[in-house]
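U., I forgot to send this yesterday:
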Amino acid sequence: MLELAIKFLLSYFLGSIMGSMVMGRIRGGIDIRTMGSGNAGGTNALRTQGLSFALGVMVIDIGKGIIGTGVVPGIDLPIVGASPDVSREWLTLCCAAASVIGHVWPMWHQFRGGKGAATLVGTLIVLAPFLLLPVLAVWVLVLVLSGFVGLSTMLAAFSAPVVLALVRLPDDQPIFIYCTVMAMYIVFSHRSNLSRMRSGEETKLTRAMIFRRKPT
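Result:
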């Protein structure tokens, strides 16, 4: 269990490295948490700093999910070694979850992070790359129809366990459990978006709503 605990913490620490904060320092000390929605994720980066800044944020945030899931579980720890009582699959899934948690609650940045979507995508690239296409399709469809980025992200996250339930159960039960828990976590991290949608204050990305009726 010591191996699991140490690697979970390593993935969490890695997840706590915020792409927006790294890009902000490169750009001269910008902190997007003081701008726009106050969130440290890619959407607020795009709205407040533009496309190139947001792309840098996404690369870092997706990359740490890839490393936390695909590299950290296989690290040969000195002294500790590999725990024979720990499933390699569940070790990988725990490290993946830790990287997402670190993104949402980063210890390096006063526990004020993003909402976890980009880092979750990074974990899926390693765990189940076949899910990327349906997840992206749902995200784009909901965004085009509603204009709400947060709603698109939440429904896209839930599409992953739905697809797994339809085509992979009962064989891929651990990944199904992981995706279900992470989808609920994504909804939790978007609770402010839900509140704003209920009150009618959530901002729409109207440029993405290609089917909306244009004002005459």
